[in-house]
């Protein structure tokens, strides 16, 4: 695909192994001067775009595009359709993702046009993004907090991206917020509610059992699919996605900070914390060899990380009662107790939809504050 305004600029679909490597390695050049940038492991990035490895392709389709100028990669983008999203919401919406580009309006315009054209040819009426490839993977464009440390499974963006995307007619669909929470004892004003909730008959809070991880993930997803079902953009997690999640958790999870609340044995709520992988691999530059693998294992499982991320936190609708109104506080308190015995100093709670008033009301009680913001854009096709 060639653009009339810049004949030396070409946007082409990724077809070869060499193209895939150019696609994946472009950020190394774009972010090389940013001290906070940490590349994810290349082996994980390869899995993310592989139809054989990523369960997204069981329920969707995607195309990758690379922008080339004078033989050099200057931008990249994906176009994807999540069939389950469109079935669930009754939409004809496609997504763009994996967006990276030099600070050049023509490059960004050409990339977005390639994604829009691919989606339009498949009957989509709206494009939304960045989502790589769906809402259940990395979502959003970072628009605030560029000076803050990188966090596991959260996008890293360059400050000019929003300006260039908005110049092509994209408007905000939703903001996703990230809170910073210092690991410390909750204020005394909360302890009364926590103690009262702890006394609720049949209520227990336990750590995840790694020995039966597949069953535990089923429990977590049961809570997720109930708790998140009314949220903007929600798409049920598929069984293949659940299996992938179990595999990923086995590698990086700290079971001490993955907690499940049950009432008379019935799952009622959860909080899922993860050590910050990006802290552990900051000096790896995206590459993993046998020696680095041993270092990573030691850093995650023995030494631990100072930072972590709460990726899931919620209570099933059935248990959002007056008697159990303190359950969210209890879950966070139990997380505090577990994390304070480890190396953790602070964690990120993300992402939280801008319109999730229930959760936003809870966070100030813990002196947590918004320190990063991510944006999902949309445009009519």
Features:
381 residues, alpha+beta, Aminopeptidase, 14-stranded mixed beta sheet, two-stranded antiparallel ribbon, 16 strands
Could you state the order of secondary-structure elements as H and E?
EEHHEEHEHEEEEHEHEHHEEHHEHEHE
Largest sheet: 14 strands, mixed
Number of E-state strands: 16
- Per CATH, the superfamily of the largest domain is Gcn5-related N-acetyltransferase (GNAT)
User: How many H/I helices?
Assistant: 12
What is the percent of helical residues? 25-40%
CATH topology group of the largest domain: Aminopeptidase
Radius of gyration: 21 Å
Give the count of structural domains.
2
Overall, the morphology is globular
Mean pLDDT: 95
CATH class of the largest domain: Alpha Beta
Structural class: alpha+beta
CATH architecture annotation of the largest domain: 3-Layer(aba) Sandwich
Low-confidence stretches: none
DSSP strand content: 25-35%
Instruction: Compute the separation of the termini in Å.
Output: 19 Å
Task: List strands and helices in order, with pairings.
Blueprint lengths: L1 E2 L2 E8 L3 H14 L11 H7 L11 E10 L2 E11 H7 L3 E9 L3 H16 L5 E4 L1 E2 L5 E2 L1 E4 L16 H6 L4 E12 L5 H11 L4 E5 L5 H15 L11 H14 L5 E6 L2 E10 L1 H4 L9 H14 L3 E9 L11 H14 L5 E8 L3 H6 L6 E12 L1
Parallel strand pairs: 5-6, 14-15
Antiparallel strand pairs: 1-2, 2-3, 3-4, 4-5, 6-16, 7-8, 9-16, 10-15, 10-16, 11-12, 12-13, 13-14
Helix pairs in contact: 6-11, 7-8
């Amino acid at each position: 695909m060639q653009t009339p305004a810049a004949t030396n600029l070409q946007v082409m679909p990724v077809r070869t192994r060499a193209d895939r490597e150019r696609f994946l390695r472009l950020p190394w050049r774009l972010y090389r001067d940013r001290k906070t940038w940490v590349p994810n492991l290349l082996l994980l990035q390869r899995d993310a775009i592989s139809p054989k490895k990523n369960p997204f392709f069981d329920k969707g389709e995607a195309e990758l595009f690379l922008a080339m100028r004078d033989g050099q990669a200057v931008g990249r983008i994906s176009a994807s359709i999540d069939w389950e999203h469109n079935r669930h919401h009754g939409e004809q919406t496609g997504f763009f993702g994996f967006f990276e580009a030099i600070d050049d309006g023509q490059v960004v315009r050409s990339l977005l046009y390639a994604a829009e054209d691919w989606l339009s040819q498949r009957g989509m009426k709206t494009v939304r993004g960045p989502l790589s490839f769906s809402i259940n993977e990395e979502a959003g464009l970072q628009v605030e907090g560029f000076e803050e440390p990188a966090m596991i499974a959260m996008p890293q963006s360059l400050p000019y991206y929003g300006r260039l995307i908005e110049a092509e007619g994209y408007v905000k669909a939703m903001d996703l917020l990230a809170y910073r929470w210092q690991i410390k004892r909750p204020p005394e004003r909360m302890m009364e509610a926590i103690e009262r909730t702890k006394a609720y008959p049949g209520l227990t809070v336990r750590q995840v059992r790694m020995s039966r991880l597949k069953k535990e993930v089923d429990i977590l997803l049961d809570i997720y699919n109930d708790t998140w079902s009314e949220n903007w953009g929600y798409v049920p997690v598929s069984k293949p996605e659940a299996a992938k999640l179990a595999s990923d958790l086995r590698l990086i999870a700290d079971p001490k900070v993955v907690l499940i609340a049950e009432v008379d044995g019935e799952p009622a709520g959860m909080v899922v914390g993860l050590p910050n992988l990006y802290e552990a691999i900051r000096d790896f530059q995206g590459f993993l060899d046998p020696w680095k693998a041993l270092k990573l294992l030691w850093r995650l499982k023995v030494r631990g990380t100072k930072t972590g991320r709460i990726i899931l936190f919620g209570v099933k609708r059935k248990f959002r009662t007056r008697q159990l109104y303190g359950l969210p506080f209890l879950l966070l308190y139990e997380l505090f107790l577990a994390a304070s015995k480890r190396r953790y100093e602070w964690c990120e709670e993300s992402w939280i939809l801008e319109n999730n008033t229930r959760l936003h009301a809870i966070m100030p009680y813990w002196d947590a504050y918004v320190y990063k913001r991510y944006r999902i854009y949309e445009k009519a096709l």
